[in-house]
Amino acid sequence: MYKKIGILGGLTPESTITYYMHIVHRYHELYGNHGYPETIIYGVSFQQYEDWMNQEDWDSIEKALLKGLKSLKLAGADFAVIATNTMHILFEKLQAQVDIPLISIVDATAEAIKKEGFSKVGLIGTQFSMTKPFYREGLANHGIEVLTPDKEDRDYIVKVIFEELSIGKLTEESRKGYLEIIDKLVAEGAEGIVLGCTEIPLLIRQKDTSVKVFDTATVHAEKALQYAIQ
Predict the structure, then answer these.
(1) Residue of 197, 198, 216, 218 marked active site
(2) Does position 15 have pLDDT exceeding 90, yes or no?
């Protein structure tokens, strides 16, 4: 029997779907049947999280995420993934309070970067992923240096995430804007680009750029699948 996967999602719904579909389709690709692990999804109501983030009220976010993780455990999950980059600010605090393993998106991304042999990457994501130390320090623990855009570009990235990508709106204008920012990071020495918000891969795909991009949603979902079937 495979381990049951718990997905704490809704942060946003768009990326939560990516996790589940990757697990199902990847398993079929590997084994040719529909015997993929059972998956339990707890989808939060995102508006309150958006409000809390704007207020930097991480205590309320921590309590709500902990409730979701404990609900996944009660529902039978053997381990869990938090299907978003930003909430990994609280990863260690949450792991200390829930007695099932949590799989880190930062560590999973670091493994993918190291497989490519890269030591310096650009990071785009929410303002928290780009400016708080958790991502930079998490990758630094694996010997990876992180470059981030300037403030004007960061503001643009965040605007598109919350006003467009979080509701599934995709435009060529925003894709072009993101690619221009990526080109700047490459010019500064980035060997690859971490799409450090799980909605960004909806807009930026590998076929859109010659530089290696790391789709953190897919990387994290793949790690969850491999953990479940080992």
Answers:
(1) 197
(2) no
